[in-house]
Amino acid sequence: MQEMNNPNLQGGHFSELCVLRRPPVYKTSVGSHKSSSSGISFRPSSFVTYFAITLLCQAEVLLGHPQCLDYGPPFQPPFHLEFCSAYEKFGCCDQDKDNTIAAKYWEIMDYVDPQAYKLCGKYIKDILCQECSPYAAHLYDAENPQTPLRNLPGLCFDYCSEFHHYCRSAITLLTDDKHIQECCERNKTRFCNLLNIQDEDYCFPDVLKNTDLNRNLGSVVADRKGCLQLCLREVANGLRNPVLMLHANDNTHRMFIAEQVGIIWVFLPDGSRLEEPFLDIKSLVLATPWVGDERGFLGMAFHPKYKDNGKFYIYYSYQDKKKVEKIRISELRVSASDINKADAITERNLLEIEEPAANHNGGQILFGLDGYMYLFTGDGGKAGDPFGKFGNAQNKSSLLGKVLRIDVDGRSSDGKPYRIPPDNPFCSDPKALPEVYAYGVRNMWRCSVDRGDPLTHKGRGRIFCGDVGQNKFEEVDIVVKGGNYGWRAKEGFECYDIKLCQNSSLDDILPIFAYGHSVGKSVTGGYVYRGCESPNLNGLYIFGDFMNGRLMALQEDERTNKWKKQDICIGNSVTCAFPGLVSSYSQYIISFAEDEAGELYFMATSYPSAYAPHGSVYKFVDPARRAPPGKCKQKPVPVKTKSKRIPFTPRTKTVLEVLKERLTTTTEPPRTGLNSTDAPQSPRKSVSRKDSTKHKPAKADKKQQTAQLPKGSKAKKEKSPYAPKAATSSPKRKGSHLRRGRKKSPKTRSATKVKTQAKKKKKRRVNLRSTL
User: Fold this and answer.
1) Whole-number percent of the chain with pLDDT over 90
2) CA dist., res. 772 & res. 766, Å (int)
3) Euclidean distance between CA atoms 172 and 24, whole angstroms
4) What distance in Å separates the CA atoms of residue 408 and residue 367, rounded to the nearest whole number?
């Protein structure tokens, strides 16, 4: 910046230093945008006023946060950035985008002489590189897809003043907006006011110096209490207690969602659902409409070689002819004529276990990396495992309260439709059943296999389970061969049955984490995140609690091998202000899921009955950081469908839709003429109907819901926001105030005066268009 003090260059313009040719026009290149203009035109005075009103109204509800011009979170570029190197560690540009910006810069520089290059080259480079800033969306007013974009980024006033003073003729090279060119090239104050943004902390270059904004930039956002701020995307709804969601690992990226009543649906990669189910065995499954009934269709797993043999396995409750309740594990095959239909006739029973009570039915089945099937059974039900001297869980001659392991690819010599793996831990114990792999579990609900770190493969093959507690504690375990997990002697880390607990031969495996019933009352096991789209989440074990809808994460300390728990708070209107993201979910968390690419989901319902169609599926999204564009792109194998496709229709309002409703409710004048038919319903009424079944884990969400109703209005008066007097007075004052604050050219003042006189003569009220 030493050249700025050179008296020969002070006040120098590009008009004096540039050649006569004018370079091509460069506008900010962004993705799809609903505005017909690619930047803020500032041409019609009414538009400027309307845009100012919009910004004022959004100032409190849509604060700046890291976001790119394609409306996604920033990322770490996979390769070095040669030009905009300031953002090579974290930002919004990959190598291709960086090269494009560099090409723009050098084409502009072709029109200036060396002296101007030394003086203004850095200014132009910095301005062009703001497309790479992690706050690019805020700098270009792109956080809301409904609003138009700027041609130039938001600049801090001092920086803008220096740029205008030394390089004001560069404005014509950076934008083709005639209004800016005509009125702002000579008027520094007007130019810098137009480039100013509401929150001065986010203007360039001060945003780079703000330590509060950049201290944890790119890390998972946490609130003051350490609660991780994640967001959700609704991917399915209208399901009857969705107990599981699986992929077949056949490169089709289809998802199979099972309802507790015994129906499995096929969901395609585009989000649509096939009209005909993959499997319907509700006539066999024992399920009731009772709230909280644990019986029904509970488990499913695809054979590791499903792509070749078409085999899959199911776990469900049923009653035999003598009305005895049992659980059944069966093998089925896919239809030879339709890969989206199972052949129910091929069902082959592998194992049946009598259930002494209606609860604690277990239900998880999965295949380990060893190719064997693992089955997780409950302790038989009732309370305290009252069966026998030590309970079912501690009795190795019972299949209840166990982790079982079998080989489904063969038959045993004693006629069983499966083999016993030769390395099962109790094969040689005459007092134990050979299927037992681990014991002492109460009712493990939802287990998963860790894929391992994508680079180091650390943790690969570990089996995590959530084991539901009795009166005091819920726990998360890692399954160990031959392990005793303590029940009923212990619950969590503490004794439950004092006599059994004092037995020195117990030698039980302690959980990696346990929590008391002040935190939650029924754990739902989850998954270790190993996906691609949210690299910050790698290694986090994400799980929840069925009863209170609490989401949690465990992070392993590699030095101590201890696990630290953090709560997950679904972000508020600031954190999750991205297209398609939601910040609320149904309360009762039934299960978690992993798609073929490793992304995580969970299933929840607002009414936990097997016959109530209130279940939804949500996908986790990290709003702080994503993978570089193109890295996670999948190429699913095309699937031929014979059934009709039903497109997905979201029911949960996105954060941007909520913000838009709030903005409309608080600022919109009365609609007239044809626009009157578009007037929305009362926001209070719609929110109360939807959110009565929604879980709002953060206080910010409660404010978000109540803020949709203007102060002083009542829910019964739906039309009150649009009453003529109440709706017109406030917007007219806002509009007139903003117009008075703007300096007008003589032509504008004269035109406004004529229009004002005409309005007075006609004595008509100002409609929406004239107010804006």
Assistant:
1) 61
2) 10
3) 10
4) 10
pLDDT tens-digit readout, 468-517: 999 999 999 999 999 999 999 999 999 999 988 987 677 899 999 999 99
Question: What distance in Å separates the CA atoms of residue 188 and residue 676, rounded to the nearest whole number?
Answer: 42
Lowest mean pLDDT among 20-29, 192-201, 481-490: 20-29
Is the bond preceding 628 in cis, omega lying within 30 degrees of 0? no
**Mean pLDDT (whole number) for 400-423:** 95
pLDDT tops 80 at residue 120: yes
Mean of the per-residue pLDDT values for the chain?
81
Q: What is the pLDDT of residue 680?
A: 36
**For residue 316, which of 365, 265, 277 has the smallest C-alpha distance?**
365
Are the C-beta atoms of residues 562 and 555 closer than 8 Å to each other?
no
With a CB cutoff of 8 Å and minimum separation 6, the contacts of 757 are: none
Q: CA 411 to CA 415: how far, in whole Å?
A: 7
Phi and psi angles of residue 332, each rounded to the nearest 5 degrees, phi first: -135, 170
Q: Is the pLDDT of residue 719 over 50?
A: no
Are 652 and 234 in contact by the 8 Å Cβ rule? The answer is yes
Q: Are 242 and 617 in contact (CB under 8 A)?
A: yes
The DSSP code sequence of 368-429 is -TTS-EEEE----SSSS--STTT-TTT-TTSSTTEEEEEBTTS--TTS-SSB--TT-TTTT-
- Indicate whether 225 pLDDT > 90: no
Strands 402-406 and 494-495: unpaired
What pLDDT sits at residue 130? 95
Q: DSSP alpha helices (H): ranges in 620-716?
A: 655-667, 683-691, 699-706
- Would you say the pTM of this structure is higher than 0.70? yes
CA atoms 717, 722, 725, 731: torsion sign: positive
CA angle 560, 564, 570 (to 5 degrees): 155
- Burial of 414: CB neighbours in 10 Å, binned 0-12, 13-18, 19+: exposed
> CB under 8 Å to 587, separation ≥6 — which residues?
548, 549, 604, 605, 606, 693, 694, 695
Long-range contact pairs involving 763-771 (C-beta distance under 8 Å, separation at least 24): 765/724, 765/728, 766/669, 766/728, 766/732, 767/669, 767/670, 767/672, 767/673, 768/668, 768/669, 768/670, 768/671, 768/672, 768/675, 769/46, 770/46, 771/669, 771/728, 771/731, 771/732, 771/735
- Any idea what the Cα angle at residue 724 is, between residues 722 and 728, rounded to 5°? 90
CB–CB of 721/671 below 8 Å?
A: no
Do residues 735 and 53 lie in contact, with contact meaning Cβ atoms separated by under 8 Å?
A: yes
What pLDDT, on a 0 to 100 scale, did the predictor assign at position 64?
A: 53
Spatial distance between the Cα atoms of 489 and 385, rounded to a whole number of angstroms: 10
Q: Would the pLDDT of 299 be above 80?
A: yes
What is the per-residue pLDDT across 329-346, written as a single tens digit (0 to 9) for each? 999 999 999 999 999 999
The two most distant CA atoms of the chain are separated, in Å, by 104
238 token code pair:
């209208």
What would the two tokens of residue 685 be? 């009424």
**Residue 552's closest CA among 583, 534, 526?**
526
Residue 476: closest CA among 541, 405, 537: 541
Q: What is the side-by-side order of every strand in the sheet holding 373-376?
A: 364-367, 373-376, 402-406, 436-439
CB atoms within 10 A of CB 121: 17
Q: Which residue has the higher pLDDT, 602 or 661?
A: 602
Cα(105)–Cα(5) distance, integer angstroms: 25
**Is 698's pLDDT higher than 50?**
no
Coil, helix or strand for 212? Answer: helix
